[in-house]
Every structure is written in structure tokens, then in C-alpha cells.
Amino acid sequence: SPKDSTDLSDFLKLYVNFKMKLRDAEDRGFSTNSDIQKEVENYKKEVGVPYYIEKYVKDPAIKKLYNESKYELRVSHILIRPDTISLAAAKKRAWSIIRKINNGADFAKLAKKFSADKRSAVNGGDIYWLTAGQTIPEFEKAIYATEPGHIYPKPVKTRFGYHIIKVAAKQKRVPKIKVSHILIDYKDDNGKVDTAAALAKAKKIKAQLDAGADFGELALMNSEDKSSAVNRGSVGLIQRRMMVKPFDEAAFKLKVGETSGIVQSKFGFHISKKLGEENVPTFKQEKKHFSQIYERRDFPTALKNLLAQIKAETNYKKFDTVDNVIKANTEKVTFGESYWSSKLHEKLEPLSVCSINGQKVSSDYFFKSVQGLPHINGFAVNKKIFDNAYSKFEKNILILQRVKKIENTDAEFKQLMQDYRDGVYVFRLQDQEVWQKLKVDSTKLHSLYEKNKSKYQWANRVSFYELYRYKKDSIKVFVDSLKNGSDFVALTARHTKRKKKAVKDGFYNLVNVKSTEMAARAFTMKQGEVSEPFKVGTGWSVIKVVEKSPSHQKSYKEALPEVSSLYHE
Q1: Which residue in 363, 358, 361 sits closest to 313, CA to CA?
Q2: 3-state SS class at 180
Q3: Cβ–Cβ < 8 Å for 464, 518
Q4: CA distances from residue 568 to 321, 445, 559, 565 in whole angstroms, order as listed
Q5: Helix (H) or strand (E) holding 448
Q6: How would you classify the pairing of strands 552-553 and 507-512?
Q7: pLDDT (tens digit, 9 = 90+) per residue, 119-144?
Q8: Strand partners of residue 151
Q9: For residue 563, how far is the Cα from the chain centroid?
């Protein structure tokens, strides 16, 4: 259509213009400009590590969890705990039991005799149906690696001890079913237990159902589960393990529209009918759920294993020399700008923190890399904070070795870097061609300010420190410490729990009094005054006022950014 042709023409003009700008950037030597290339490299470090972790570590594992969750497995186990015997003895006993099973011994009998899990031992080790995300990683890995009807070939060690695992069956999982039931409890009208009478009544109802009677009507008239009887027996949607095991097992075996036989549980006799079932949700629907499971349960170990693998590949070595100097240091130094002018820096500058692929990594490179990190910047350079900072640094520098390997083979990452590089080139080009050539007439700027200066006003502002804690009891400890002479600023820098990019060490510098509840309160206080603890959101704050600045007109210098913007327009 004509509209489509116009859109295509406009797009082509923009595209050609963009490509010409990139060609101009190349002609100006941007691709060899060390400043620009350093910016691109910094971006690679910033996005490369999370990109690699997300795409090559988390995503495959989360997808695997989802695919495994499409199935459920009937699992039994024998647990040998090392509580009363040594770990080595527990392992030896587990191997002995595996040999007996392989020689034809009955798994259920051995479970009843040897398993320390008494709840499952009485059922021959049966722990019912399991699916992905429901048990500990080591156990789950073993059950999905075992064919139905077989045992896992070796003992599986977990924090509970050694397990001998058997998978009895594997089937497609039905996440939820919609079911109705009729319950006949064991008690008669006088409240006495009469199991025979209850069974007879259940049989009579079952016969009526077999003859074509309406399930809902019979549930309404006969079911002694009153909460579902009023809904014609419906208990709604249920998942595995929501109901008692005999009921659960019978209901999930049914086909949609099918009625069960008489099932006995501790509550009485049940007759159930399956009204519907849900399919396994799509990966998109389940990704968040399995991401949370993976992050909490599996990722810490996966990351630890990945870093160990990269260390081995790169012949990585960490040196203790920097640690030793920091341990012996008595100078008060913090991570950040103050470090570079300290005596500690003079001592550490010649030292290296580690080596990778035979290349040493300097302490300066380490301190530059970590000085902007939260919970590091502004904190004392001591052994505890150094270890925390080094842990983060080590993770990044090791995973960057993998990023280097994918930057030319991973098309998506390659394009991501190309887009950023192109953006930097165009921005620098625009800066050179437009902003650097824009001449500013200072006389006209000042005249513009004088004409509009009534518009340039500071609101009421205040500077203050805030010590924020999640619990009232916690903040009371610090209040007592302040009363005993502790320094408010030092306490806040170390212990405040509120972290914002614009707020360093709990200090709010001349903020609008309307910006936060703390600012509004600070403006009502005197300079130097410390407040009592007060509730803010879900936590507690104590504030100290540093400076109050009532509303007033901005000076020419203060208003210059706004005046310049108006001038450029």
C-alpha cells in the first residue's frame, strides 16, 4: 500500500543516514580511539557477566527443571543416617544394602528393617509421587536419572545421610484435577463408631451411582463432608498431596467423568468423581516459578562449580600478599576515592591479587573494579570487607574468561555489543558536530536569567543523616550507643540498611522536604538535633539534621543548567 511504501522510504532514509554516521565515525578513527574502546570494554564487563550467567547457566537449568516437571515419579528410598555410626560406616551399610537388592532381596522389606526414615519405612520406603522442584537437588537428580523399576546404582549422599533410591513408576503429570466426593464417616447418628454400617451405606450409594443416579444429588443428600456437600460434593481443584493419600491416589487415577470405587481413609469412606483436569502450563507461564526454585535451591552450588571449573581451566591463583598487608594495616581507610591517596595504597600498589592464564592482576585493578559496588564503597578496608569485595571481584573476573570465548560465537551477544558500540560512535559524533560547536553567549545567558530569575527557586531543603533498621529492637541498640557517645555519622555509614544510589552512607544532601517522610520531619528539627526512633514504612529511622535551607531564589550559577537549556531551545 502507499502508506507501507512511505514507511519503508522513511526507514531507508534513517538507515542510510545512520550507516553514513558510522562510516564517518570510522573515518575519524573512533575504532582505534582508546577512550571510546575503553568505554566499550567497560560495558562488556558490565553486561557480559550477567548475560553469560543468565543464558549459559540459569536458562538451561530452569528449562530442564520445567521439562522434568512434565513427569512425576513414584519413589521409594532407604535412608541410612550417620548419627549413631560414622559417615564412612553409613556409606558402607548403604552399599551393602544395594548389593542385597541387586542379588534379589526385596526392597520394601529392607526399607522396613533398615531405613531411618520411619514415616516411609512402614510403607516399604514409599514416599509417593514426586516431581521437579519438590525435593533436594542431589535426590532429585538421582530419581530423574533412574529408569522405572530400577534402583539408582550407588548411594546418594545428602545432608540427611545416604539414600538407596528406587523409582517404581514414571508418568505424565497432571498438575491439578477438579474432583467431587461423597464422604461417609465412621460414626452413626449417636456419634458412635460403626465402620460396618458406614461401609454398608457407602455400598448402597455406590450401587445407586452405578445405576445412573446423579452424583451431585447424592452428595448433597448423603455426604458428611458438609463444606463440599453444599457444592454437590465439589472440592474444587486439587494438587498432589493436598488430600489424604488414599483419596489422592484414587482420584488422580480416574479418567475425566469417571467415578471411583469405595476408598477408605482415616476420615471414613470416600467415593469420588473426576470432573476435569488441567494440562501442564507452558514454559512461559512457569518460568518465574522455576526461576525462584533454581535461584534459591540450585544456583549457589552451580555457580560454585562453574567458578571451580574456570579456575582449573585458567590456572587461576589467588595471592595472600594483599590480604596480609590489609590484616596488619592500622590506617583508617575506606574503599573509594580516599584509598588512592592513602599510605595503604602505597604499600599495595606493587602487589598483585591473583593471576589468570599466567598474567598477574594488580591490586590497583582490583580496587578500581570494586570501589563503586554497594556494601563496599565507603566501607573500611579491613579483612572482612576485603573478603566480601574480593569474592565479587573473583566471580566477575573468572566469568569474563567465558565471556571472551562467546563474544565472537554468540550472535546475540555480538549484536548487543555492536549496538552499544554504534550508539557510542553516534553519540560521540553528535557531541563533536553539535554540542562542542554550539557557541554560548554568556551575556545573553545572563540577560535570560535576569528576565526569568523569579522562576528559578529552591524549595525548602534539608541535609540530614538517617540510620535505618528493619526492627525497632535493632535500632534501640544503636540509640543506646549514641547516648553513650558513639558517633552518629560513623554508626550510620556502617549500619544503615537503606541503600540508594543517590544516598551514600545514609547522608541526604539538601533534598526537597517533600521528597521523603524523613526530610519533612528533619525540616521541623533544629540543626544538629537527633530524633527519637520513628516508624517509616516497614522499618524504623533515627535522623540527625546537618543543615536547613529555606526556600529562596537560585543564584545565576545555581540556575545555569536550566537557563542554558532554555537558551539552547
Answers
A1: 358
A2: strand
A3: yes
A4: 55, 10, 14, 5
A5: helix 442-452
A6: unpaired
A7: 999 999 999 999 999 999 999 999 99
A8: 166
A9: 45
25 contacts 428 by C-beta, under 8 angstroms? yes
How far apart, in Å, are the Cα atoms of 293 and each of 61, 62, 81, 187, 278? 11, 9, 26, 44, 22
CA dihedral (493, 499, 503, 505) in degrees, to 10, reads: 10
Predicted local confidence at residue 18, as pLDDT: 66
Q: What number of residues does the chain have? A: 569
Q: Where are the alpha helices (DSSP H) in 255-375?
A: 283-293, 299-314, 321-328, 343-348, 363-370
Q: Is 160 helix (H, G, I), strand (E, B) or coil?
A: coil
Banded model confidence at residue 285, pLDDT cuts 50, 70, 90: very high
* 509 phi and psi angles, rounded to 5 deg: -100, 110
CA distances from 130 to 19, 173, 175, 241 (A): 56, 10, 12, 10
CA 513 – CA 523 distance, rounded (Å)? 7
How do residues 515-536 score in pLDDT, each as one tens digit?
A: 999 999 999 999 989 999 999 9
Torsion of CA 207, 209, 211, 213, to 10 degrees: 130
Supply the pTM of this predicted model.
Answer: 0.70
State the cell numbers at 470.
Answer: 528493619
pLDDT digits (tens, 9 = 90+) for 325-353: 999 999 988 998 889 999 999 999 999 99
C-alpha span between 543 and 518 (Å, rounded) = 7
Scored b (16 or more CB within 10 A) or e, 486-503 reads: eebeebbbebbebeeeeb
- Cα separation of 328 and 11, whole Å? 64
Burial of 104 (0-12, 13-18, 19+ CB in 10 A): exposed
Q: pLDDT per residue over 427-477, tens digit each?
A: 777 766 655 565 556 778 888 888 888 889 999 999 999 999 988 888 888
